[in-house]
Amino acid sequence: MRSLFPLVFLGIMGINSHTYGACETLVRGPIAFDVQQCIAVSPEQSFPFTDPRYAFIRDLPPSNRAQYLDTYRGLILRGKVVRSMAVRSGLSPEQGALGGEVVSVFIAPKVTDCNAVNGKRVQGQLDQICCEGGGVAPCLLGTGYILNKPQTTGAATVVGKHSIRAQGAAKQGYQQAAAAMAKHDFQGAAKILESLREKRMIDTQGEFLLGASYRELDECPRAIPPLEAIFSKFEKSNFWADDEVYIRKGTMLLARCYAMMGQPGDSVMVLKSFLVEPKKFQREIAESLSHADFGGIRTDKAYLTYESQARKLLRSSQ
Description:
The protein is α+β, with helices and mostly antiparallel strands. The protein has helices spanning 5-13, 43-46, 55-58, 62-70, 168-182, 186-198, 204-216, 220-236, 244-260, 264-275, 282-288, 301-317, and strands spanning 25-40, 75-84, 87-90, 94-95, 102-107, 120-128, 145-155. It is elongated and about 75 Å long.
């Protein structure tokens, strides 16, 4: 009886069985990956020789056929990339490629047990292959990503680096800061968050809230240190996917504060970081062209040059 694995597999994983054509970009580098779903690949069942697509495997000499099938003994994992230091090269260069995205990857034959990785956080070296098509693993499985040197680092989690908040005094401090901000007591919130920062018990969200508190108090100079820490992570793509919202907001707030402090060059320098990926950062670029905090630098040459470029990129990315 013909195996149903290809149909079941493709339906569950949400991918297709076609080999890949030429790639305009190529992704490679370290990632951390939260496994949501795992399927062990049994190549003898996955590639029924009665299917014309797999006739080339049937026609191989027995020893070569066995060797070829062995390259496909592994796992296909589907899940969220929670941290990425991978680089997308080619026509659209990008640092931190695939961060926050749900993708499918192949783990080579050394790992064959889903129980070892299902529901776990796995890190390794991601390589994109199959760009020229062909039957090398994992191209026949509908994904172009292979994860080399995989290591489990514990249970998958949605909190990322926010685990700091669960630690004793830090947890209490964040609760107090949240309560203060809810009452618009930004002075009190800033005091609590500064204390956590001095004790190195602050996370990315805390850095953003500290910067936001100072902005509400019209004390942008005091907001700069925590916001610059956020911008450094943004430039290096060195953050968990769950922190991205605070990374983006914090970077924009840094540009706004520089503008409020009469430093158009510094403000524009930060804003230009959004222009590298105009399609991804459409919202931030639009905000940079309309937010009142940039009112004081709108006639500055550096901002006018940025504005012209930003509007052009914004139109082309829509």
